[in-house]
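Figure 3 (text version): structure tokens given as input.
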């Protein structure tokens, strides 16, 4: 699918039932993400857990990075007992129930019963959430009638996802301040019913089902040919479609969000250590932050259509690096609410632009019949390196603290995270240059 720069959406386009369902599914996808990540770290820090332990516990999020290993099952198998719902909807419903139950179990356990048990429950939630993402991404791509509708669904998904992040990154802090962390996590588990309701209202993508049914008939999964097609077919098709550039694409995608992932486990402990209250953080994130997300999603979609995927990715990457590095300014000012508000707005805008540009680009690279596995491969690639590198983030801050003091350590850490985005920018600039050369060669053949 290629984007059309001429398409202008009207308000009624956003009221399309499929778009509204996508909005709710995006919320369901985003809800557990921080509850096993950065917000989980805030809860642990409130309980006196060390930065080193918080950093390493963030590795439960690696489930998102390895989902490509079991994603072929989502392309070839129905969920037992839910086959009547269809393959995509069945997997979405099953994983949504699992995420909701897992969050409630985390709330009932808490750090008081040991970090090992709580970490294991967080890993179960992360596994179910990663599987849910695979099914939702496949539904989003396969349900789109054309590239324009894919862009519309991607915008709705991203907005729903970002709203969920704000809820689990801001409103939950206000809730935790007054109701406590266990009840706050319980409410989030109950909120997974929003995604379940959307799944029940969604329509199964019939065209994709027909392709998958033909594959199952021609080469059943239990045959050697069917097993090979389910496991290796998506990867072979991807590399055949993109040639040698596929390696550069995967590397660029894998490095693009490294700055955001690496700084993630330390951002809430940083707020805690500089003295910002949960109420202030929640209020700023839920107001100015939400407005910045609105603006960033709109800008990211517009830039992807007007500039093309590569240029939008490069601009989003630059904004992302600047937004993350800007947090170093707070180490000099302390709990300065106006400065915190300005930096939060910049960060939310930048991350939204970069996020929607990346999702739109990755969505354009998939093939019908292999959607779940190929998109899982791409989204796993984008998260793997960052999630591996974020584990020792607390250890890095502690080491820098021993030499420079806590606040200077945080400042150096955030600036360093911003600089980690440079390699991805270079790779996407290289891909853009190669694309332009091929375009010129096709227009002016020798």
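Below: residues designed for each position.
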């Amino acid at each position: 699918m290629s984007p059309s720069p001429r398409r202008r959406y009207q308000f009624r386009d956003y009221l399309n039932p499929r778009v509204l369902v996508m909005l709710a599914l995006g919320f369901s996808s985003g809800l557990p993400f921080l509850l096993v990540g950065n917000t989980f770290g805030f809860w642990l820090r409130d309980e006196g857990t060390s930065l080193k332990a918080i950093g390493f516990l963030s590795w439960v999020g690696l489930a998102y990075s390895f989902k490509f290993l079991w994603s072929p099952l989502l392309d070839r198998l129905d969920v037992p007992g839910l086959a009547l719902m269809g393959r995509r909807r069945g997997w979405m419903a099953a994983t949504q129930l699992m995420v909701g139950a897992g969050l409630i179990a985390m709330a009932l356990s808490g750090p008081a019963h040991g970090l090992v048990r709580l970490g294991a429950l967080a890993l179960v939630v992360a596994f179910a959430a990663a599987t849910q993402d695979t099914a939702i991404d496949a539904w989003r791509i396969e349900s789109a009638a054309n590239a324009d509708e894919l862009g519309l669904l991607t915008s709705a998904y991203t907005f729903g996802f970002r709203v969920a992040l704000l809820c689990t990154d801001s409103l939950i802090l206000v809730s935790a301040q007054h109701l406590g962390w266990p009840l706050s996590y319980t409410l989030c588990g109950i909120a997974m019913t929003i995604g379940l309701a959307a799944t029940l209202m969604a329509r199964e993508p019939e065209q994709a089902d027909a392709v998958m049914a033909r594959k199952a008939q021609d080469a059943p999964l239990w045959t050697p040919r069917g097993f090979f097609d389910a496991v290796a077919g998506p990867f072979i098709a991807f590399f055949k479609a993109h040639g040698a550039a596929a390696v550069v694409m995967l590397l660029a995608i894998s490095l693009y969000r490294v700055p955001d992932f690496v700084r993630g486990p330390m951002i809430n402990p940083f707020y805690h250590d500089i003295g910002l209250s949960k109420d202030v953080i929640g209020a700023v994130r839920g107001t100015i932050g939400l407005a910045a997300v609105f603006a960033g999603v709109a800008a990211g979609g517009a830039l992807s259509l007007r500039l093309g995927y590569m240029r939008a990715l490069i601009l989003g990457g630059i904004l992302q690096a600047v937004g993350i590095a800007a947090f170093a300014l707070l180490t000099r000012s302390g709990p300065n609410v106006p400065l915190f508000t300005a930096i939060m707005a910049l960060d939310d805008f930048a991350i939204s632009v970069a996020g929607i540009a990346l999702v739109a680009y990755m969505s354009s690279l998939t093939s019908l019949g292999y959607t779940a596995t190929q998109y899982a491969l791409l989204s796993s690639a984008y998260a793997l390196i960052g999630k591996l590198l974020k584990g020792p983030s607390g250890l890095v801050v502690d080491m820098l603290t021993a030499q420079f003091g806590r606040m200077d350590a945080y400042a150096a850490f955030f600036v360093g995270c911003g600089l980690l985005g440079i390699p991805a920018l270079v790779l996407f600039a290289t891909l853009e240059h190669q694309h332009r050369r091929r375009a010129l060669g096709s227009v002016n053949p020798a």
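The CA atoms of residues 38 and 265 lie 5 Å apart.
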